[in-house]
Amino acid sequence: MNDKNKPQTIAQKILAYHCGKDYTSEGEIVNADVDIVLGNDITLPIAIEEFDKIGAGRVFDEEKVVVVPDHFAPNKDIKSAQQCKLLREFARKQDIKNYFEVGKMGIEHALLPELGLVLPGNLVVGADSHTCTYGALGAASTGVGSTDVAVAMATGKLWFMVPKTIKFIYSGSLKKWITGKDLILYTIGLIGVDGALYKSMEFSGPVVSKLSMDSRFTISNMAIEAGGKFGIFEVDGITEEFLKSRSDGSYKIFKSDPDVDYEKTYNIDCSDIELQVAAPHLPSNARNAKDLTGISIDQVVIGSCTNGRVEDLRIAAEILNGREVDRNLRTIIIPATQNIYLEALKKGYIEIFINSGCAVSTPTCGPCLGGHMGVLAEGERAVSTTNRNFVGRMGHPKSEVYLSGPSVAAASAVAGRIATPEEVI
Amino acid sequence: MIIIRERAIKYGNNVDTDVIIPARYLNTTEDRELASHCFEGLDKDFKEKVKERKIIVAGHNFGCGSSREHAPLSIKASGIKAVIAVSFARIFFRNAINIGLPVIASSQASSFIQDGDELEIDLSSGKIKDITKDKIFDVKPLPEFIQGIIRSGGYINFTKENIKR
Q1: Which domains can be identified in chain A, with CATH numbers?
Q2: Interchain pair A391, B18: CB under 8 A
Q3: Is the domain B3-164 a CATH 3.20.19.10 member?
Q4: ipTM for the complex?
Q5: A342-369 mean pLDDT
Q6: B89–A197 CB contact, under 8 Å
Q7: A391: which chain B residues are within 8 Å (Cβ-Cβ)?
Q8: What confidence score (pLDDT) does residue A5 get?
Q9: Are the C-beta atoms of residues B79 and B132 closer than 8 Å to each other?
Q10: Beta-strand pair A299-302/A381-384
Q11: Is B70 close to A46, i.e. CB distance below 8 A?
Q12: Is the pLDDT of residue B165 over 70?
């Protein structure tokens, strides 16, 4: 068979397209053109130093480099302020079109799709591990380090090993309150934190085809928590609807060939999947939330690139409406972008949150990585809609994080302990 | 020929980037400062151990989690000469290669070597020798492209050389 007639996955096709080929084989190393190069206030300071060493002078394309100070911004201390200043000066010097200052800034992986900066078929790299989020749009998108980003900013190219693909087929029907977060925590629990190491994860099946974009972003976002390189959804009507107001439609859609040879296929019946919570200290420690309901907590965080979107805030508001959060804990809600914040405001969610005793913050990654806006003290425990529960992730090395979706987080805020929505409504 | 002869510090599976260098220290790019907090979340004795032992040997999925290049940078700046593991998380692996920290995936060697063993690594031939236990492990060579990055001393030098050409 001619190479170009061999069946290929979405990942193979997108990588082939970006290095001017018809076909790439799994395991092959290619030097490919990237569509977007992304960095933030933690990873870009190193990338800028390395970029200067290359001596290229200018970035390869000032419209394709995206700079988002979101991790320790608004500046949490003087050192963070220096790092953000470095980004600001670099963006000005290089005429970076997509630099987002505090006030316009949102959490990068919510912001880029919202603005239509990533489109189906794109090849995207970002110096942030959750760059895999854009797989929800049918893009091949992955996290890299600062040096990789420096090279990509200078040359517009980066090397990739073409990954093998694991297919996940979700069927059955979803129980009430189940969202993308429960599906991905369940999946990581099934395959482990390195269950998709170096692999592309392809999410499909009848359940997925009805899933909202917000839930799809959550699933792709956490592909990295299983070690995945990409976490890809095929473009469908729901994707196209999302993109209608964000693009002129001139993007290229890639689909895996039907007879493609997957590394592995998982058939997951969702009908029995309960609300999930990942216990410390690995995202793969997924349990049924109802089995952990006795555990007391000190803080709830609803936000992040994983679950800071409108669907998440809607679910939290539904549970918090007319209720008060437990007086012994802090509840911090962080809409992921200014637009999400505004929409939540218009829909009355923000008023519900404030009336129920929650703190509502401007967009920032903040507490997810123990940066600011909700760092945990020794011995404290949080339920959080974020993506990692490693030792010391949200603060003190002897603090603990339980990962959940928005409904369990909101219910736990009301109960003062891990709780399911049924217990508080 | 690059030979590294050092003793091993052994860790387990899934050593994540948050325990290698907690995010609260990511407001700097200063090597020495990063090194002073390296493995703070995992092993409070690391700073003492690394004075006499300079090879890390670990289990599955070493370096999982964030893309922070500060993780391999802090390890390298601590004086560690190489990391041997059953497997590496993808981004950590790239980052280590890119900054010139030798990383070697060997499930046999990683499982066999014990804390404190004296090791000799021949980076060019890909052999790991456990001197304490007198056992040699052959390691599968990296793809030629990646070896090129290593030969150049990291991805920045490699890129500069290729731009010139």
Answers
A1: 8-273 (3.30.499.10), 276-424 (3.30.499.10)
A2: yes
A3: yes
A4: 0.96
A5: 98
A6: yes
A7: 16, 18-19, 41-42
A8: 84
A9: no
A10: parallel
A11: yes
A12: no
